[in-house]
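## retry 2 of 3
previous attempt timed out at serialization; input unchanged, resubmitting
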Amino acid sequence: MKRYFIHLAYNGANYCGWQIQPQSPSVQAELERCLGLKLGVTISVTGCGRTDTGVHARNYYAHFDMKEAIPDCDELTFRLNAFLPNDIVVYRIFEVAPEMHARFDALSRTYHYQITQVKNPFHQTDAYAYYGPLDVDLMQQAADLLKNYTDFTSFSKLHTQVKTNNCKIMEAKWMEQDGLLVFHIKADRFLRNMVRAIVGTLLEVGKGRMTLDGFRYVIGQKDRCSAGESVPAQGLFLEDVGYDFNL
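## retry succeeded, writing output
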């Protein structure tokens, strides 16, 4: 059995997310359909994680298995891109060790959340528009606090089936990028809705509605109801996924 990784990207505006959902278009369903047609067999693709409705991915990884080796992965990539919808692109298909897993072997994940502070017709579907004043320096001080904690229950979607709400946050910073205010966060794993809930709560700090002590209190409460509202999905990008391909 041969295992292949797919490196891809997608604009999530027209999808219910990565994962297949009944009666709803998903990135996984489109990829499996097109791969199956091009390879002539039924293909089951395992993604590095699920993204919610409307969330985008600049770098996403998935894997699938084949009984026989693919003769030319570059040719398959070209043919696949000619067949996939315009909002999904495959960058590369490559063979990995048979035991390597797109989800479980991911060492880190990085997300960006984009905010536009001026009316911009070119960012209607990939950024959250907020026009009020924000104290970005104070928001950064609050973001720095995240690395002092491991339990992020306060920022998790309720009633999810996970064994732990612990995550190790490696990076959390606000930055200016191409005229946008961007929140960059990297961790070993993320909970459902975690990034959008963190950004929504950091915006409360930036608006002057929450102090740094209040932000600490929210994390310590381990209660989603104590945190701010989640920001819209359209501004969220899965920016990168880290692997050790030398294993």
